[in-house]
Amino acid sequence: AVNGGFELVDAAASSSLLAPVPGLSGGAGLLSTIDDYSRFAQMLVSGGSAGNQRLLSRAAVDAIMTNQLRRDQLMELPATASFGLGSVGEGLGFGYGGAVVTDTGPDGVGSVGEYTWGGAASTIFWVDPVEHIVVIFMTQVIPPGGEPIRDRLRELIYSALA
Q1: CATH class of the domain at 31-161
Q2: For the chain, what are the domain ranges?
Q3: Cβ contact 126:114 at 8 Å
Q4: Which of 68, 37, 43 is nearest to 57 (CA)?
Q5: Kind plus residue range of the DSSP H or E element containing 112
């Protein structure tokens, strides 16, 4: 970048990410600002309310953030899969649109009911309804998975709460 500043690589108005995704893409393709993502995550941890406005019913938020899969449906998920949730392993399920902690595992870090999803550039968000925290990590490391930065971030945050 010029003079040690930032360099615009992909202008919002002409970004290639605005083009429709060909075919089915599952959880891919969601774009957001950090402010809007923060409001969304805060709404989840607040049980469906944003400020004094109810956006989702408590029942809808509970369904989103509760495991919806049976054990046999999770069998193909490797025990080492973490989705940025550290050593949770087999204590992982899936709600509507994200991973859910069903058991904190041997280290006991975090809370049952944590809800999370990551992005292609090693981004991650999670909400912990027990500790009432929201974490949004908007890094740009591609490909994800090289360094366990999401797992390390989680360790740092929960160790600071202890």
Answers
A1: alpha beta
A2: 31-161
A3: yes
A4: 43
A5: none
User: Is residue 84 a contact partner of residue 97, using CB atoms and an 8 Å limit?
Assistant: no
- What is residue 1's predicted lDDT score, i.e. its pLDDT? 56
Stretches where the chain sits below pLDDT 50 are 87-88
Question: So what's the pLDDT on residue 18?
Answer: 78
Tell me whether residue 28 is exposed, middle or buried, using C-beta atoms within 10 angstroms of its C-beta: 0 to 12, 13 to 18, 19 or more. exposed
Alpha-helix residue ranges (DSSP H) falling in 46-107: 58-64
The per-residue pLDDT for 105 is 78
Pick the closest to residue 45 from 34, 33, 58, 35 (CA basis).
Answer: 58
Give the number of residues written for the chain.
162
Q: What is the pTM of this model?
A: 0.78
